[in-house]
Amino acid sequence: MPELPEMENYKLLLGTRLNGHTITMVEVTREKSINVPVEQFQQALLGNSIRYIERRGKHLLFHLSNSKLLLLHLMLGGVLFCGTEEQKPDRTVQVTLRFGNMLLYCIGLRLGYIHLYEHPESAAQVLQKLGPEPMEPGFTLNHFKGAIGKQRGTLKATLVDQHVMAGIGNCYSDEICFDAGLLPERRCAELSAIEVDQLYRSMRHVLSEAIRYGGYMDMPLYAGDVLTGGYDSRCQVYDREGESCYRCGHLIMRNEVSSKKSFCCPNCQQ
C-alpha cells in the first residue's frame, strides 16, 4: 500500500505535469471507485483544470478550478501512471482522466477510490479523523512524546494507526523501528525517554530519505521516471525475510505483530 513517501512523491511529480492543465475526458470503468453517479462525476470534471495538488496522510487532494475537489486514496494495490495512450501499462484501470494528449490512469482501485466533493470543506470532514503529519515542522519531539505516551499497544500498531499519526504503514513502521534499534512488538508504555527520542529521530530520518528517493513503489509514474521506487533497494528490513541484516549480518525475520506482518532483525533490535 502506498504510504506517506509514495504519495508525497506522486504529489510532487504530478504537480509539475498536471497543474494548470484542463481535463478533456473522464472515463470510469468501475463505478464503485467513485462516490457519485458517473455522469455527475464527468460533468463536474470536464472543462476544469487542476489548480494544485495536496497530500494528507496517504491521500491526494486534487483542487479543481471550479472549487470542487477530488480525494484519492489508493489503498492496497493501487498505483498511478501518467502518460499517453501508447504508454498505458497493461493493467486494469478504474478511472482515467485525460489532459489533452496526456492521461492519468488510476490503476488497481479494488479497495481504493477517487471521490468528488463539492467543496474542500466536505473532504476536510472526512480527513479530520487523521492524526498529525509526522513530517510537519510543527510536529516536534514534544508533540511526538505526547502522541506516543498515550498509547499502550505495540510500536507496530501505534505507528500504523492513522489516528495517532497520518501516513505511516507496514513498510515504514518496520523501517523506523529498525533504524531506532527497537523491536516492533515493544510496547510504547515500556519505552525509555532515550528510546522515544531515538524513535522520533528515526521516523523523521526514514521518511525524509524515502521521500528523497521516491518511495518504494516499483512502477514508474511516467515513461522515463527514474525517481519513483528508488527507496525499494534501500529498505533495511521490509520484505527481506531470510536475508542478512545490513547492520549485523543476522537473518531478517518476519513475524505477526498486532495482526500485521512485520520484519525485523532480532539480533540488533531490542
UniProtKB/TrEMBL annotation:
Q: Give the signal peptide range.
A: none
Q: Which UniProt keywords apply?
A: DNA damage, DNA repair, DNA-binding, Endonuclease, Glycosidase, Hydrolase, Lyase, Metal-binding, Multifunctional enzyme, Nuclease, Zinc, Zinc-finger
Q: Native species of this protein?
A: Paenibacillus rigui
The chain positions of domain Formamidopyrimidine-DNA glycosylase catalytic read 2-112
What is its cofactor? Zn(2+)
Q: Which SUPFAM superfamilies match?
A: Glucocorticoid receptor-like (DNA-binding domain), N-terminal domain of MutM-like DNA repair proteins, S13-like H2TH domain
Give a GO biological-process term. Answer: base-excision repair
* UniProt-recorded name of the protein: Endonuclease VIII
The record's listing under PROSITE patterns reads: FPG_CAT, ZF_FPG_2
Q: Where is the FPG-type domain?
A: 236-270
Describe the family membership recorded for this protein in Swiss-Prot or TrEMBL.
Answer: Belongs to the FPG family.
Q: Give the reaction(s) catalysed.
A: 2'-deoxyribonucleotide-(2'-deoxyribose 5'-phosphate)-2'-deoxyribonucleotide-DNA = a 3'-end 2'-deoxyribonucleotide-(2,3-dehydro-2,3-deoxyribose 5'-phosphate)-DNA + a 5'-end 5'-phospho-2'-deoxyribonucleoside-DNA + H(+); Hydrolysis of DNA containing ring-opened 7-methylguanine residues, releasing 2,6-diamino-4-hydroxy-5-(N-methyl)formamidopyrimidine
InterPro entries noted in UniProt: FPG_cat, FPG_N, H2TH_FPG, Ribosomal_uS13-like_H2TH, Znf_DNA_glyclase/AP_lyase
Gene Ontology MF annotations: 8-oxo-7,8-dihydroguanine DNA N-glycosylase activity; class I DNA-(apurinic or apyrimidinic site) endonuclease activity; damaged DNA binding; double-stranded DNA binding; zinc ion binding
